[in-house]
Amino acid sequence: MDQIIFPHIHRFRATALAGICKNAGKTTVLNRILREVPADETLALTSIGRDGETWDLVTGTQKPGIFVRQGTLLATAAGLLRHCDITREILAATGVATPLGEVIVLRALSDGQVQLAGPSVTEQLVSLSQLFWRFGASRILIDGAVGRKSLCSRRVAEATVLCAGASFGGMEATLAETAHICRILQTPALPGDPPDTREKFVLCDKQLHVRGAVTDHFLLPLLRGLPEGVTVIAQDASRLLLSASALHKLELRGGSLAVRDGITLAAVAVNPYSAYGSSFDAAEFLQKMTARVDVPVIDVGSRQ
Amino acid sequence: MIIDYPQKQRIGFTYVLDLLAPASPYGRALLRKLRPFAPREVGALQRELDAIEAILSLSPALLAQIEEQFAQLRDIRGSLSRIGGALDEVDLFEIKCYLLILDALGPLFARAGFILAETLPALELLDPEGNRVASFAVSERFSPALAEIRAEKRNALPDARADIIERERAEEEQVMERLSAKLLPWKNALQQNADSIAHIDLRIQKAKLARQYHCAKPAIGTHTLHFAGMVNPQIANFTPLHISLAPGATVLTGYNMGGKSVTLKTLALNVLLIHCGFYPFAESASCPLFDQLYLVSEDLEDATRSLSSFGGEVVRLREIAGGEGFALILLDEPARGTNPAEGGAIARGLCAYLNAQKNISVIATHYEGVAARANAHYRAAGLQDIDIETLCRFPEAERPAQIARHMDYGIAPVSPDQALPANALMICRLLGLGEELMRYIISET
What we know:
Distance between the termini of chain A: 10 Å
Largest interface: A-B, 17 and 17 residues
Largest sheet of chain B: 6 strands, mixed
Distance between the termini of chain B: 45 Å
Helix content of chain B: 40-55%
Strand content of chain B: 5-15%
Oligomer: heterodimer
Strand order of the largest sheet of chain A: 5-6-4-2-8-1-9-14-15
Structural class of chain A: alpha/beta
C-alpha cells in the first residue's frame, strides 16, 4: 500500500484527527492510516466521546466502520463492545463514565470492525495515554472532535490531521474555513506558565494573557485599548474561537496570537464527496486547498 | 444511640470522620453508613475495639502493604450480585481482578491474623492458564468449539464473516453463562470478603487515628462515665479534661468564656466515638453504653422549628423527660433564655429531677443553687496567672486573645456549695464596654 498520510505523522507518538464539520471524512482518513501503519507497530486507538454523534455511531449505517488489525489496543465504552466484531481481551476499566458505559481498554485478538467512544476530557485522555503506553502501545491515534473544539494539547497529541470535506458547504466557504482553522491550529507556542490570577485576562509587557476562551465578543471591545503589537495568549488552540475577520482586525493593529500549549498541524486531508449530495471536482479542490494552506494536503478518498 | 446529623456536625463528629481515609471503596462505603452500637450490641462493640487493639500491634509496613492492595480494589458489588445470572466480559474481568487482589491479600492477611473466605478455585476458573495477569478474554481454553470458530474467522472470506462472527458470539455467550454458573458456589464468599475488607479497612483507619492522637482503648459497659486527659481534636492546644460522671446529675460551673460549652461538646463527641467503635481522644476512658445521647444547647437549636430559643429548649426537655432507656443528657445553660427568677427555678428543678434518675446528666449553668441539687459539681478553672489590671494594659483589640491565653480551660471537682464565679463584670470591662455604661451596671450590683 502507498503511504500517503503516514509519512506526515510517523515522527509523532500521538496524533489526533479533527474535522472542520461532521462527515468531513475523518473515519476514511483513520482507516487509511490504520492500513498504512507498519505491521510491527502496536497502535492504540480511541475516540473522543462526541455527544451529538454518539447515536449516529451506534445506529448510523452511512458511517464507515473502523477496521483494526489484531494486536491493536482500543479504548471504548462498555456499551459499544457488542458492536465490535473483534475477538478481544479486556485489559482495564478506566473509571471514566460515558452515556454508553464505562470506558474499557482492550486488545484486539483478531482483525475486525470496532466502534469507538472514549474519554473526552483532556485529563482523562492523558491518563488513558499512560495506560496505553503501559500496555505496550508504540503509537496513539485519537479520533478527535469536529470543528475547532478539537484536541489542542500536546499532552494528549503532538500532531493533528485536519479533515476538510465537501459536507461543509460550497467550495469557497470550505476553503476559507479550512484555511482559518489551519491558522488557528498553527498558532505559535509561547511556553511558560499562565499568570497566577483569577482574572479573565492580564495585560503585561504587550502580552494579553487570557483565561478561557478568546472570542470575538471578548476581544473586539478590548482592541482599541490594547497596545500595538500585542500578543494574545491562550492556553491552547481550542480556546481560540476568533472569527477570521476578528483575527484580521487584531493583525491590522500589529497584534498576533500565541498559545502556551501548541501542537503541530501535520497535514490537511481533503474529501471532495459530500454526505449531502453535491460534491466537488477532486482535482480542483485539492489544487485550491494546496494553494490556501501551508501544510501538506492529501486527497484520501480519490486515491483509494 | 440517637443523635441527628446537624448535632454530629456541631460536636465535631463529621470532622473526625473526615480524618479517616479508607483505602478501598468498600471501606469508604462503610464509613458513610457508620452507626453507633446499641447497648445490646456490647459484645460486637467489644470485638471491634479488640480488633483495633490487635491492628495497633501490627507493623505499619504490613498495614501499608495491605492498604496498597485495598487501594486497587474497585466497587464491583454490582458484578458480584449478577453471578449466577448474565455476566458479561467486563463483569468477568472485574471479578478476575478482584480475585487476583484477594489472592495477593491472602499471605498478608495470614500474617496480620485477618480472615478471608477461600476463593482460589474461583480464580483458577477464570485464569485456567494460571498467568495471574489482570486481563480477561473469553479464551479458547474455555471451549474447543470456540477455538474452531476462531480459526475459521481468521481465514474467512468477507461474505462468510458475518455468519462466523454470529457463531463466535453465540459460543462466547454460552461460555460466559457456564462460567457464571460455575462461579455461583463462590458468590457468597466473594461478597463476604468485600464486607470483611470494608471492616478491616475501616478498623485500620481507626487504629491509625488512635496511634496519631495517642488515643486509649476505652473500657465499655461500666457503671460510671470516666475520662482522663480527654481532648478535642478540632481545637489546638486543648487543655486535657478529667471528669468522672456517675448516674444522677453533675453540675458544671465556671467563668464566661471558660469552655463549659466546649467541655460538653467534647464529652458528647468522645462518647459518640466510643459508641461507633473508635478509641476516644483521651488517655483513658470508661464508658457505659447509652440508648440515647441528648445535647441541649441554644446554639444547637434548630431555627427552622420556628420556636424561640427557650421554646426550642422546652421541646427538647419534653423529649428527654419522655425518653426511654439509658441516656447521657448534656444541658448547656438550661433556661438561660427566660427571666432569671423562673429560669433559676427551672434549672434547679431540672437538676433535682435528673439527679433522682438513673441517667447520667451534666448541667452547665450560671444559676445559683443548682449545684446543691446535684451529686457532683465541677468548676472550670478560669483566668490564671494574670489579674485584671495587667489585662487592662493590653490594647482593647488584643484583650480577647489575652483572655483566651490566660484562661485555664481545665475543670476540677469542687464542693456543691462552692460559690459561683463572678467574672461577668470583669469580662464586660475587658472587652471594652464604655465607662459610663459600666458605672450604671456597677451601681446596680
